[in-house]
Amino acid sequence: MRNVAPGPRPGHLWRTFWGYPLYLALSLALGALVFVPRVHAYFVSDDWPVLLRNMHVSWQEVPHWFAGMRFGWYRPLFDVFVSLCWRWFGLSPAAYRVTSIVLCSIVSANVGAVARLLTQDRLAGLAATVLFATSASHAEPVLWYAASNELLAGSLVSTGMVSYILFRRGRGRPWFVACLLCCFGALASKETSLAFPPILLVYDVLYPSRQERRSVRFLLPSLTLVALGIVFALLRVPQDSAYSVHVTAPRLLLNLAYYAFVGVFALPSNYAVQASLPLWRTSPVLPVAALTVSCGALATAAWIGIRARAQEPLCSHKRALLFCTAWAVGAIVPVIPIVAERTVYLSSLGIAMGLGIAFVGAYRTLKADQRRARAIVAIAAVVYAVVSLSVLRYRCAIWGKASETSEAILMEVRGKLPGLPPDCRVVALNIPDNIEYAYVFRNAFPAAAEVLEYDRVVEAWPDWELNVLGIETKSEAIGQLAQGPHTVAYWYDGGVLRLERDSCGRAVEQGGP
């Protein structure tokens, strides 16, 4: 089969999108299956400062947000999004979660649409949709509201990609304008969207028009967007970033390995960091099973597809696979200095498209009478999706535990404040920074106290910060961080917040050693 650039014929645009409602419905159904049990999950970690800085804003301020950095970031569209959500939902976690589920489902449907456009294969679009909706790395961006900028950027990037392909397929300049607006919006949502313009250039190189084969004139639209990205980077880099950009060669390799294992091989992210060695020793079954089964499924489909293709290439999606690989790798470049579950998100668009196209390509390559081989490829694809879904549910359960812990401690602290003298200082020690890399109180205070309208400032020292300070015992923590008159100190241990020091005249509860 010739690998020509597929596309809708004039007047038949509906043929391209006939499956989009199916992709969206399937994405919403899978999203409900995975995330609805956690829809009431409470706010955690950076959710609180994100809400605080956007909860009482004047719309007259908004144009200024687009002119420069705000709170160390350039994410004005995300801040507008949060401000609107606050006005509509207030402190209702379920509404925020539903919004995130819908955004992720839209991205998933767009991923299916792009795969369909690249291959002109409806089954490839369906496979890409399912693999993206079940990606093992999506718990953090969906269940951690502070990371929903990934969802907002992903929805704009994927919509922009669909628009650009339709523009290149002769659907008219309005589609390029739509892509341009999506590019602006994505850059204003998350700076890691810088990978999007080069991805468009890669598409033009791989799918040139028949009349203008890779000429500069043909590449002008994508080069314009690349220039936009370069200008954005030059304006932003001198203002620094909240993330460190220094990375050594060994660290670079380790970070790449992290993204490969988490994004492609469905390794739970809490098992993909150096500090996870104790977890590997105590609970090795899940990561070993995930790696073994996912690698086996991918290798089986690849082996059968390659053997069949060597005999008679009935189906070729080579350029589509190259494009998806470029997307998956290119989206990692802006985030390579760090490793986090959420930063896999934009790359996972390319990964899901590539894997979906690869599975379907292997299936299509086989002849109709090779039923056993076709069944094996189909089973391999289903097994991979099930493994990825299982890991996703596992990570969702951990984020659910983190949110329950956050809510319990915050409500307990609120209950202890009434009756304290106005000048009494409150210190909470050893509260959890994270639970298996699902954040709980990292950066939560003092913003959480302000959003919840505590009647005083609460000083909080999570367990990770105590470790950084070299504080190993409760007595050391109280001695260094909770001294002085008019101080009440609480120590969190074993799920209980105990009063350990009180110089405000209240009786001290019995605590542990």
What separation lies between the terminal Cα atoms?
73 Å
Uncertain regions spanning at least 5 consecutive residues: 1-12, 507-513
Work out the radius of gyration: 25 Å
Number of contiguous helices: 21
Q: State the total count of DSSP E strands.
A: 6
Shape: globular
Largest sheet: 4 strands, mixed
Secondary-structure element series: HHHHHHHHHHHHHHHHHHEEEHEHHEE
- Kindly estimate the percentage of residues that lie in beta strands according to DSSP: 5-15%
Q: Indicate how many domains the architecture comprises.
A: 2
Verbal overview:
- Helices cover 60% and strands 6% of the residues.
- The protein folds into 2 domains: 13-401, no CATH class; 417-502, no CATH class.
- It is mainly alpha-helical and 513 residues long.
- Strands 4-1-5-6 form a 4-stranded mixed β-sheet, with helices on both faces. Strands 2-3 form a two-stranded antiparallel ribbon.
- It is globular, with a radius of gyration of 25 Å.
- The model is unreliable at 1-12 and 507-513 (pLDDT under 50).
- The longest helix is centred in the last third of the chain and has 46 residues, at 371-416.
Describe the structure in brief.
This protein is mostly helical.
Tags for this entry?
mainly alpha, 6 strands, 513 residues, 6% strand, two-stranded antiparallel ribbon, 21 helices, 60% helix, four-stranded mixed beta sheet
